[in-house]
Amino acid sequence: MHMQYNTRTQYIVDSQEAGPKLQSIVIGENSKMREVPENRQKTLRNQEKGDYFDPFLERNLEHPTTNGETLTHLLKASLGTGILAMPLAFQCSGLITGIFATVFVSFVCTYCSYSLVKCAHTLYRRTRVSSMSYADVAEVAFANGPKWSRNFSSVTRQSVLWLLFVTYFGTCSVYTVIIASNFDQLFTYHMGYELNLRSFIAILLIPLILLSYVPNLKYLAPVSMVANLLMATGLGITFYYTLSDMPNISERPAVGSLETFPSFFCLTVFAMEAIGVVMPLENNMKTPRNFLGIFGVLNVGMGGVTMVYILLGFFGYLKYGEATKSSITLNLPIEDVAAQMAKICISLAVFCTYGLQFFVCLEIIWTKIQENFEKSTMFHNYVLRTVLVTLSVLIAVAVPTIGPFIGLIGAFCFSLLGIVVPVLIEFATYWNDVTIWMTLRNVVLIIVGILALVFGTVNSVADIIAAYDPAQAVKCAINSTLTEPIAE
After folding, report:
1. So what's the pLDDT on residue 404?
2. Which letter does DSSP use for residue 213 in this model?
3. Which end of the chain is more exposed for a tag (fewer CB within 10 A), N or C?
């Protein structure tokens, strides 16, 4: 018995086989599915049953990235400005609890990203394509999964695409506010008078447009390297202040209260999550097998990120205690030259990071355009880049207090994209080989994702109320990087 399903591609699944074995794949003439750009597709090749297909040998990239370049991008994506909120997170959890809880959150985020890429590698071989986007993986997994998932393949694809776009485009707008706010503070201190924050945001338009013109991830790698160096310098100066004249560890609680722990969880999840760049990074690798593995790019990168998060959170809270602010840079003395240099370095690092966040948005919209307009050229691509950057800056100019609203969107999107959806994709990909252990593990992860969604939404709503009614300010809310411009 054969069952045929029509989505963006036609899949013929043999229900008698053990597992969702793909018998054939036929891309229709009017199909809009586009796993990867045409010069990287190797579909319908050696289709005879039994032929071995190695998707990584078939991958044809014009500008592939090395392991080191991919690691650089991953570090930049994960070591965002959210790290500056880790001392506040430890204030909500306590010193010792914060260490173990940060490791747990890191494990969840890393495992879900690892699972997504692992499922993608399995689906490459089943569908005989060399690479897929996050949305493609979701669609193909659901189209070839159990009966309950097959009717949702197209909806899942579109949901992933728009959740990614809204989250990362909103992040781009917030980044402009963060950069402008830091320079505004320094300008006011040195010049003795204030300029409207909107003026600083508008000044960023041309530099950000030029940054967006970097053609691909290969050429963006040096920018990420510069960003990492700037962030390292800024964090190094910050560590200098936090390690100076530290109080005794006994002066800080080792365990926080249950009331504030959800805030820790939200701060850490949304600071460490980088699910949106995982598939673009893997798709552009020269040696994609090296992305996974015990000492693969993903594990090495996230392991290093976790150590830095723990160190800054621990020592930052130990140093400033209950006086810890939403961003550790706000605790640094503005009159010190070193502290000013830290703010400049971190602001420039955020500026450089804008390009990596923007790349996610660009690929989503550009793919849509190419699906519907066959005559699109690189000229149109650069027009799109200009329009998207301009829109992100205009939104920031119109609503400089956009941070809490994007925090609400991030709480909703990252909980689903970073935890829940990868788990569902794993169920759909290996649905005929599901074990009790896999079921228990994934149920726990789904519960964690739902908790992140609920607590993140509640705390983000509290931030919105605080932004427009300071009297209602919440002491320990999910500020992460998003409330930094408001606090400053």
Report:
1. 66
2. T
3. N
